[in-house]
Design goal:
With 597 residues, this protein is of the alpha/beta class. Helices cover 63% and strands 11% of the residues. It is built from 17 helices and twelve strands.
Length: 597
């Protein structure tokens, strides 16, 4: 755990953490020495030699004073290191995740980061400020006592030392038992939290479908399981804690029995025996405290492990400065193969398998195909959300792995189906595309993306807060704000993944006109399921099973009569389905579903 702690706090705090541990070690040794000095004081007092006890009493007082000073020093240093580590950890997490591939930020990983920020960092802070001291004292102080006892009476020291392995094994058993219950309780708690959020967010669906009772039943079931897991956790803690405390007291009792036997046969004097048994009792005190620390130590150890995992994630490799500079906005994929790995959505199965494409600068390319064909993956590999498994992705003739991240980011503006807006005003969210943009540029981007219509209708206009994630706006409005942000950035390459999916037909047509106006000015790569939005593209790429099945213009691909033509006909038939009136018949309902080709 200490090794992990050093890695997590980072190089900047290692010297201060080392100083804290050294002061803490000194305090624990001094505390043990104070316990040991009680023996000669008691021995001489019980022998009736008060004069001989005074030197030892003064030594005890001096060590006790030094112990108090060391305690204060380690406490203050512990608080300082804990606060500095807490501050530093937030920065380390932020700095590190900013270097990770964008593809790393799945929903699961984002949730993990939220947990680490909300609970993990405070648990590490608590470890440094409150837990290290009793942990070190519970190990070093008893060890000091046992070593000193070896010089006073090796038999009692041996009897005391023999109990240590039993106490250690009992403690490990208790912790492993509780760890399993902790894991189950954490899982049940996460499930309950998910069900609460789901129940709140799904109210429109539950009410419109009359499924309120089922939604409540799922929530109540998760809450019951959380409650049951909490009870099992408490039940698992009791036996282990009781067993550990019992073993500690049994070990002390065994030493007392050994001491009594030695006293009865005259091997140890009564005064010396009483003093030594007092020392044994002091030995047990810090060890018993370990039972109280179990839960907090487990939580801190788990937080350290999770922080260590995130901080150990390899960053996206960066080229040696200054890196290559793309010559233009052209894009190219050379025999690209890519899979997400065992933990990804597609497992080890290749999502793209031998894809080669060249997209000249200032052309419009539409990427279409059935679900799961690799369209979104292709778009995100162009922006280097991940590095390809095999092959190469080039921008302006330069391999993206040889282009600095900032340079590459400047070349792209992106609009995706899942839009996220910050909890700020509409203006501030649009300005993220180019913070130094003029009011005229903002208004022009807003006009092209039809955001000006949203601003004109809202009472606070540009200063309207959009809420966390943009929840104050509709899905179509969020997408238009995102599009305005991308337009304002004015990058030479624009990637759009279902950028008009949440728009109504009128706004979709308007935005499509905007995209058409960009033709010849920027390199556009568009993924769309609505094929009417891609018919004017300079080139259509049809993906199927992670491979390029066909390429060409809309007219060429229809004339080819292949997969694209079949796909076009299927989409045309599905879009022509409608609910209409039929002539009523006596035994039939007046409404029926009819379709036409």
């Amino acid at each position: 755990m200490i090794r992990q702690l050093f890695h997590v706090v980072g190089p900047a705090l290692r010297r201060r953490l080392t100083a804290q541990l050294l002061v803490l070690l000194g305090y624990s040794l001094l505390q043990g020495a104070a316990f040991v000095l009680v023996v000669p004081v008691l021995r001489r007092l019980l022998d009736g030699d008060a004069d001989a006890a005074w030197p030892w009493a003064w030594a005890l007082a001096g060590v006790a004073l030094a112990t108090a000073v060391a305690y204060y020093a380690q406490q203050m240093l512990g608080f300082q290191v804990a606060l500095a580590a807490s501050h530093r950890l937030y920065h380390r997490l932020g700095d590190h995740v900013s270097t990770l591939p964008l593809g790393w930020f799945s929903g699961e990983q984002v949730g993990k980061l939220g947990q680490l920020a909300a609970r993990g960092v405070p648990q590490v802070r608590s470890l440094l400020a409150h837990l290290l001291q009793p942990l070190c004292t519970a190990v070093v102080t008893p060890l000091t006592v046992v070593v000193a006892m070896a010089f006073l009476d090796w038999r009692l020291a041996l009897a005391t030392a023999l109990g240590a392995p039993v106490m250690y094994l009992t403690y490990r058993w208790a912790m492993s038992t509780v760890a399993r219950a902790d894991e189950a309780a954490d899982k049940a708690g996460a499930e309950a939290n998910d069900r609460v959020v789901e129940f709140v967010r799904s109210q429109p669906v539950l009410r419109s479908t009359g499924s309120g009772p089922r939604g409540r039943a799922l929530l109540e079931s998760a809450l019951r399981e959380q409650d049951a897991a909490g009870r099992r956790q408490s039940a698992a803690m009791a036996p282990g804690r009781t067993a550990f405390i019992a073993v500690v007291h049994l070990a002390v009792a065994a030493v007392v029995v050994v001491g009594a036997a030695l006293g009865l046969d005259g091997s140890v004097g009564v005064a010396e025996l009483v003093a030594l048994l007092v020392l044994v009792v002091r030995f047990a005190e810090p060890v018993s405290g370990m039972a109280e620390l179990g839960g907090s130590l487990r939580a801190a150890r788990g937080a350290l492990k999770r922080l260590d995992e995130v901080l150990s994630e390899p960053p996206l490799p960066e080229p040696a400065p200054p890196g290559r500079i793309p010559a233009d906005g052209s894009l190219e994929l050379r025999d690209v193969r890519f899979s997400y790995g065992a933990g990804g959505p597609g497992g080890d199965r290749p999502v793209l398998d031998g894809v080669s494409l060249r997209l000249p600068a200032r052309t419009t390319t539409a990427v279409v195909g059935p679900s799961g064909s690799g369209k979104t993956t292709l778009i995100r590999l162009l922006a280097r959300f991940w590095d390809v498994t095999e092959g190469a992705v080039l921008v302006g003739g330069a391999d993206v792995r040889e282009v600095a991240s900032e340079t590459l980011t400047d070349r792209f503006s992106m609009v995706f189906q899942d839009v996220y807006l910050f909890d700020a005003s509409i203006r501030e969210n649009v300005l993220l595309g180019r913070p130094d943009a003029s009011d005229e540029a903002i208004e022009e981007a807003a006009r092209l993306a039809r955001v000006d219509e949203i601003v004109a209708r809202l009472p606070q206009g540009w200063d309207t807060p959009v809420g966390e994630g943009g929840t104050a706006l509709s899905g179509g409005e969020r997408q238009r704000v995102s599009l305005a942000r991308a337009l304002l950035k004015d990058a030479p390459v624009m990637l759009l993944d279902e950028a008009t999916s949440s728009l109504d037909p009128a706004n979709e047509a308007a935005v499509q006109q905007t995209l058409d106006s960009l033709a010849g000015l920027r390199t556009l790569v568009v993924v769309a399921h609505r094929l009417q939005t891609v018919v004017g593209a300079d080139r259509i790429v049809f993906l199927d099973g992670g491979r390029v099945a066909e390429t060409g213009t809309h007219t060429e691909l229809l004339a080819l009569g292949g997969r694209y033509a079949e796909f076009w006909r299927e989409r045309g038939r599905s879009q022509d389905w409608r609910i209409g009136h039929q002539d009523p018949e006596p035994a039939r309902a007046p409404l029926a579903v009819e379709g036409s080709a």
